[in-house]
Amino acid sequence: xxxxxxxxxxxxxxxxxxxxxxxxxxxxxxxxxxxxxxxxxxxxxxxxxxxxxxxxxxxxxxxxxxxxxxxxxxxxxxxxxxxxxxxxxxxxxxxxxxxxxxxxxxxxxxxxxxxxxxxxxxxxxxxxxxxxxxxxxxxxxxxxxxxxxxxxxxxxxxxxxxxxxxxxxxxxxxxxxxxxxxxxxxxxxxxxxxxxxxxxxxxxxxxxxxxxxxxxxxxxxxxxxxxxxxxxxxxxxxxxxxxxxxxxxxxxxxxxxxxxxxxxxxxxxxxxxxxxxxxxxxxxxxxxxxxxxxxxxxxxxxxxxxxxxxxxxxxxxxxxxxxxxxxxxxxxxxxxxxxxxxxxxxxxxxxxxxxxxxxxxxxxxxxxxxxxxxxxxxxxxxxxxxxxxxxxxxxxxxxxxxxxxxxxxxx
Length: 411
Prior knowledge:
By secondary structure, the chain is mostly helical. Helices cover 73% and strands 1% of the residues. It has one domain: Growth Hormone, Chain: A, CATH 1.20.1250.20.
């Protein structure tokens, strides 16, 4: 029996912990415990247990991104499930799949379990982005999104601290860490299904495929964002293990530094977006990413050392915190009923390059690792050029600087 829906306007009478904004924070804290722990252990796990090289890791991440490419299927699933239910079921699937990762220590097994966890992750992320933009007031969106990001970083911080402090001391196994982190996320997902009411946003969402010409710049920015982010996720961490020999606790320690920096700077980045606007914030982000990726290439071309590589890894991660500007840009230009279907379409567009690039660049990596990062710098430069097309004050009818102004009819 399904729960009756509670309109957002009536949620103020609920206890604070049962309100929709709090649910967003709870989900934001639960998801990265599984996903980030999986990511922190992944490179060491596949190299030491399954003997992966650059080509294998590229194949793995291509498989991992297939569900993201198929995120458009969310539109059809929403014909049968509420967005909130789908988000929590997806969160649970992510947790369960992460928990059993170490049970399949072969190429085939790792690919299959990664595909399942990825379905949970990508469907959760697609619907969660839609819920954030529907449940958070537009005026407070940049700051609130920054605090939500900080909450996720805080929860993951606890997990990473535990790994760093206990991995060597208690000789932990991959199986134990995956079971605990994935089990926690799955438990939170199931608990939230029963503890929270169903929330109903004031604007019903379209449940069909939507491609609107006026969102073309947002689509392109998503495409480039998926390409450069994927190169960072796949190859920056892999470089730290393959080239510099980082152990599990050292990789996790690097992730830990990122998390602390994110907890401090993510809310500040929200303020930056609110003060500067999306155009200036994204121009700053993409300019910084061009410099970072060029420097990554220099590590291989000129033999720069591990200190620079680790510093770039942290700086790179901080720039990505400004990606909330892309969310708020869309929130400002979107029709209220377009948010859910466009989130699914944008997620698919974001992952077109993510499906193709890892396996292709994995082959490039074997021959010339520096070339991979130089390609990433070129992609970031493309994003930079597109950012100049964002208006200083975007809104429906003024989605780009090229949009024709709407002329009011003469009286």
